[in-house]
Amino acid sequence: MKPLKRYQYEHYAVLCKLAYPRIFRHTRYGFDPNGQRIIRDRHSKTMIRVLWSRQKDEVVVVFKGSHSVSDWVLNLALWMKDCRSLGLPYHIHAGLYYLLQQESQPVRNEDKLGVSILERLETILLPLIEQGKRIVLTGHSSGGAMACVVADYLERRTPKCIKRVVTFGQPAVGNWHFYRQYTLKHKTYRICCDIDIVTFLPPFPFIYWHVGKLLWLYNGRIYENTPALIRLGRSLLSWVIRPFSYHLMSKYIRNKDFFDER
User: Fold this and answer.
1) 3-state secondary structure of 238
2) Where does the Fungal lipase-type domain lie (predicted)?
3) For the domain that residue 82 is a member of, what is the CATH number?
4) Domain range spanning residue 236?
């Protein structure tokens, strides 16, 4: 599995952050003027941005995380939903399934009514894949979970079309069969910062499973594939001892720049 490079991390992290504002000037980040397609949810709010340029061989698909009350309510749909109707041999979080299967409101004149989020995204991506471009999927929170499911769906229908999947603060997606059958473990990077509580959700160990390579950003270092219990234990211990850490001389030395040179 190739390491995720710093410029790739920064690029995808910035795109995920900029997915939330209503206006996103994609040309500032190297994409063509006509290299953006927007997919809207049932409430006509932007949910996914598809970005590309003629000079690059990759298309970046950015999934927005929960951004409305109804989305947060769907996060509480903790039961599993069978995905065999999508050609996927496993079960995933029911709220996540509904997000992907909800009707997508048209953006362009040629967009049809009665098309799901997943169907509209596939319609946009297939011509780009036929041009030889490969797909990078990224997202924050529930957007990262959707990115994993969509990536696996596309890879099964069009093999080798996925370049990588990079998620930020992503909750677990599906059951044991999802963990076993997910085809892109070697191309999926799951980034977690400190004790991000969402990465421990849903709170049902051995029922919901994560996939891919975990990169845990903690105490100025990157840890790989640290088990959830160890992450939780270290973070809680850090909280307990943090007040005493300010007593160390290293803290006093580090703050020398507060004083003017005399």
Assistant:
1) helix
2) 60-204
3) 3.40.50.1820
4) 6-258
